[in-house]
Write a structure and sequence with these properties.
Layout lengths: L7 H10 L7 H13 L1 H18 L1 E2 L6 E2 L5 H4 L4 E8 L2 H10 L4 E5 L17 H14 L4 E5 L5 H13 L5 E5 L15 H9 L2 E2 L1
Length: 206
């Protein structure tokens, strides 16, 4: 058993950092050491920001985004095109599209994709809320609502997209998807802004 070279507080910090995506045990140790060396400029402000976020951040009751406001800032923005809803798997995909400034629309976060082998069915995702949202929006608008299915180009993503499309049958809504410039197997959060913007502009009917 290796000898402990730090106190339990530092070990706890390292263990928590190692759970962050992209940080393994070694990277977590380097990050922890850097934070400790910059305690006044990094560690204390980070601890304060984390505590503040834990207290104030919540999930938007409309779209599933995370924000300190509910409804979130995007849902409340009057400058958005409220006739277009972009459907994404995760909040990270929403943030990626926003970074790319690819579309000035509203969003809907599913919270994942259909995966029967993993026990993830429609009930585990935010799909029913999407159908209700589209149904209400389609009934209240004089022009058809557009739904952009912006899920990842994986088998699970495409299965989810087809399921949503089937559920929307009969509603006055135009359903489009990202252009095939998004590579098969690619995840939105890892694509560059130019690719995302081009995919949005070249979207096609589902």
């Amino acid at each position: 058993m290796p000898k402990r070279v730090t106190g339990p507080e530092i070990e706890t910090l390292i263990q928590l950092l190692s759970k962050v995506p992209g940080l393994g045990p070694r990277s977590a140790r380097r990050a922890a050491l850097h934070l400790i060396k910059k305690k006044d400029h990094l560690l204390k402000p980070l601890a304060h920001a984390a505590a503040d976020a834990a207290e104030k951040v919540s999930e938007c009751s409309i779209c599933g985004n995370v924000d300190t406001a509910n409804p979130c800032t995007i849902c409340q923005d009057p400058k958005r095109d409220h006739g277009v809803i972009v459907v994404v798997e995760d909040v990270s995909d929403l943030w990626a599209l926003e970074r790319a400034e690819a579309v000035n629309a509203l969003y809907h976060v599913l919270g994942g994709t259909l995966s029967p082998l993993d026990g993830i069915g429609p009930e585990e995702l935010n799909i029913d809320a999407l159908i209700d949202r589209v149904s209400q929006g389609a009934e209240s608008r004089q022009t058809p609502l557009e739904l952009i299915i912006a899920v990842n180009a994986t088998v699970e993503g495409q299965t989810t997209a087809h399921y949503i499309t089937d559920r929307l049958d009969g509603l006055s809504v135009r359903v489009t998807r990202l252009a095939h410039g998004v590579p098969v197997g690619g995840e939105l959060d890892y694509l560059d802004e130019g690719t995302l913007a081009a995919a949005i502009k070249s979207r096609s009917d589902f």
